[in-house]
Amino acid sequence: MTSTSRAWLKEHNTLHVMHPMQDPKALQDNPPLIIESGDGVHITDIDGRRFIDCQGGLWCVNAGYGRREIIDAVTRQMEQLPYYSLFPGSTNAPSIALSTRLAEIAAEEGMVKASFGLGGSDAVESALKIARQYWKLEGQPQKFKFISLYNGYHGLNFGGMSACGGVAWKSSYEPLMPGFFQVEGPHLYRNPFTNDPEELAEICAQLMERQIEMQGPDTVAAIIAEPVQGAGGVIVPPASYWPRLRQIADKYNILLIADEVITGLGRSGSLFGSRGWGVKPDIMCLAKGISSGYVPLSATLVNARVAKAWDRDVGFTSVYMHGYTYSGHPVACAAGLAAIEIVVRENLADNARIVGDYFLQRLQELKDKHRAIGDVRGKGLMLAIELVKDRESKDPFGPQDAYPIAISEGCVNQGVMIRTIVNKLIISPPLTFTKDHVDEVVDVLDRTFTANPW
Ligand SMILES: Cc1ncc(COP(=O)(O)O)c(C=O)c1O
In the chain, which end has fewer C-beta atoms inside a 10 angstrom radius, N or C? Predict the structure, then answer.
């Protein structure tokens, strides 16, 4: 690429692209890297700089870049049939094959059917609408409320955004959807209650129960939560929390929705995050890793209890009045089938667990050396380094503070692509990552913190 065409891309990006979660004015001074190619766990930008991709795209390129079998599957499908719809009167073979494959790999969780979309926000929106319709079909239309967790992230469509547990994601777009409530989830590093994980899980479980009772259990449709909170800062709940959520959902006759958009397909060290906690949700939201990010795809899976509600003959309300032109897009489903095969065949969930444990141990060593690191945490290959101004008070760096950006830029300048969410460095590489890659990244982090002492 010539320097003229590179300059053209940079200029026109600022002029014409609305970037998610960014102030357009800031793009001028802080232009993004323009990524041009990828191979394995590496990416290269238009200036020819090569980086180890600690973001995995955006928590999504689970199988890594350049996987020939996904590319071939997509190409074959495009040649044979680029599109046909699932709306009344037609369907296509790849959507049938993918829903069957998803039911196989999530058989342990009891999932039987899939509703397709194009990304995580669709997966959540579908889950919320399925839950509301389920209760109408069950003859309890007053059960329409949703309870989610502080720091939870559920995408940015109106339903999912209303379930989000952070004000920054919502305030510009209020008023939100009615019927959404949040309670405190178990955040071990930052909570007003206790440092004991199991005690914290129990306190938070009781807060969930109190909220349900306050709302009236017969008005609550579902609890929605992430098995490990991602965008909120990789918050790993104590092991007893998700089993308690299942118990609470059963006690009050409420559905449990696992938002597995990040944790699904291996990232959290088991094929699904819920499986890692030994829990069977009623509805599971999958996106990102389902196609390893190669094409937009999501699936909302439901178990037999939920699916059966539609068996009743209750007239018009039993129409599943939801879906998109591209629900079950044959090219996306072909990509999904190929991507899932790689994750399953190469045991990438196991690799995420083993390499993730090693990564966490190495990050702990960094924490022992560098005062600005307040906490390191993670599960599988989703990890975070939380930066603080003072370890005792845990005073966090804010959006205006330059320090976290100085660290992430220092890493980028040494060939490690790493992302900050305010005061957290987020690590979510492809699940093909090795211990050697971890050592490489930790060396760069170590050098960067040493060069930027706090
Ligand atoms: C848990 C969770 N749910 C939903 C979403 C929304 O996904 P998308 O950005 O693909 O719409 C995300 C995105 O990061 C997510 O992490």
Answer: N
Tokens 């510009």 sit on residue = 172
Pocket test for ligand 1, best of 288, 294, 421 (most atoms within 8 A of CB): 288
Which of 261, 267, 291, 298 best tests ligand 1's pocket when mutated (most atoms within 8 Å of CB)? 261
**pLDDT at residue 415, as a whole number:** 98
Binned at pLDDT 50, 70 and 90, residue 4 comes out as: confident
CATH number for the domain spanning 375: value is 3.90.1150.10
What is the pLDDT of the chain when averaged over all its residues?
97
Residues with CB under 6 A from ligand 1: 119-121, 124, 153-155, 226, 230-231, 259, 261-262, 287
Which tens digit of pLDDT belongs to each residue from 246-267?
A: 999 999 999 999 999 999 999 9
Number of Cβ within 10 Å of residue 282's Cβ equals 26
- Whole-number Å distance, alpha carbon 130 to ligand 1 midpoint, is 18
Backbone phi, then psi, for 285, in 5-degree steps? -100, 120
383-401 pLDDT, tens digit each: 999 999 999 999 999 999 9
Sheet harboring 35-39: ordered strands across? Answer: 35-39, 42-45, 50-53, 416-417
DSSP result, 265-331: TTTTSSSSHHHHTT---SEEEE-GGGTTTSS--EEEEEEHHHHHGGGS--GGGGS-----TTTT-HH
Predicted pLDDT at 380: 98
Please tell me whether the peptide bond between 175 and the residue prior to it is cis, using omega within 30 degrees of 0.
yes
| Shared-domain flag, residues 162 and 282 | yes
Stretch 418-424: mean pLDDT: 94
- Cβ burial of 25 (10 Å; 0-12, 13-18, 19+) is exposed
Six-digit token pair at 228? 């490990």
Helix, strand, coil percentages for the chain (3-state, nearest 5): 45, 20, 40
Which pTM was predicted?
0.98
Gap between the Cα atoms of 299 and 112, Å rounded:
12
Helix (H) or strand (E) holding 386: strand 382-390
On whether both 261 and 142 belong to a single domain, the answer is: yes
Residues 76 and 213 in one domain: yes
**DSSP letter, residue 118:** S
Final residue before a domain boundary, out of 345, 371, 393: 345
Residues in the chain: 454
Q: What is the mean pLDDT of residues 314-343?
A: 95
**CA nearest neighbour of 266 among 357, 363, 155, 379:** 379
Domain's final residue, options 308, 329, 345: 345
